[in-house]
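Entry under discussion copied across for reference:
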Amino acid sequence: MRYNETASRTCLSVRKRERAAERSCVHMGGSPVVAAGRTAEVLAYQPGQVLKLYREGMPRGMAEEEYQISLKVYNTGVTTPRPIRIVEHGTRFGVVYEQASGMTMLQAISVNPDMLHEEAARMARLHQELHARDIYGLPEQKAVLKNRIQHSPFLAEVEKERIIAYLLQLPEGSKLCHGDFHPDNIILGEQEWVIDWMTGTRGNPAGDVARTVVLIQMGTMPEGTPEEIVKQFARMREEIVKEYARHYIGSGSLSQEEVDAWRLPIAAARLTEWIPDAEKAGLLALVREALDGSVA
C-alpha cells in the first residue's frame, strides 16, 4: 500500500519503532526521505511542502499525469494536498505538494486496534463522499482497466478477450473514483485528507469499491514497513473489509452484487502493477477461478 508524507510518524507513536524509523530516514541531496513506495518516495521539501519523487527510470509523463489528476481533484473541493508544481531532480521527476499533517488511518488503527470499527466506518463515509461527486476530465475507468488487462503478461489472449468483453458490459459511471483507496491513503489530523490520486478516474463507484476490497484483502505492505505492523494488518484486514463494506453497502447506495461484479476486471488489471509475485499469484488464481466459473 502506498507512500505518504507522514509514514515516519509511526516511529513516534511507539517507542520500539524508533530504530526502524532512524534507518528509513535516509537523506538524498539534503532532503530526508520520509516515506517510500514501489514507484516513488516522498521527501521533505520546503516548509509546508513535500516532494513525491518517482524512482529512476519512471517517465516524466507519470508525474505530469499525476499532477493534472491531483489538480482537478483538488479543484473539486476534495480535502487533498494541493499539487504545486512538477520538478526534475537529476534524472528523476516528481510533484511538489502541500504537506498534509497527521497520521494515516492505518497508523491510527495500528496504534489503537480498538478503533478499527470506527475507522472502517469513517473510511466508508469518506469513500461515499468522493463518489457523490461528478467529475470530468479524468481518465475513464473502463479505458484504464482495459488497457492494463491488454498488457498483462500473465494472461492468455483468449483470457484477455473474455475479461475485456465482460468489463465493457458493466455499467458506466461519471463519478470521482480514487483507484487506490485504502487506510494508508487517508491522513487523519485537523482535517481528513485523501491522498495519492495518481490512479484517479471517472467511473462507476462499484468498481472503485471492488478495487478497495481487493487491495485490502490481497495487497501487501510497502518494503520497510515495521514487521509488527505487517503482522497486525494481516490479522485485521478481513475485519476492516467486513466493516467497511457493511457501512458502505448498508447505506443503500450500492449492493454487494454490484461490487462483486467488478472483482474480475479489477483483479486482472492489477496484474500489471509493481507488486510482489505472491500477490500476483493470488490475483491470478482469483481471475482463473472467476473465468472457470463462467463469470465471463
In short: Confidence is low (pLDDT under 50) at residues 1-29. The longest strand covers residues 83-89. The chain has two domains: 7-98, 103-292.
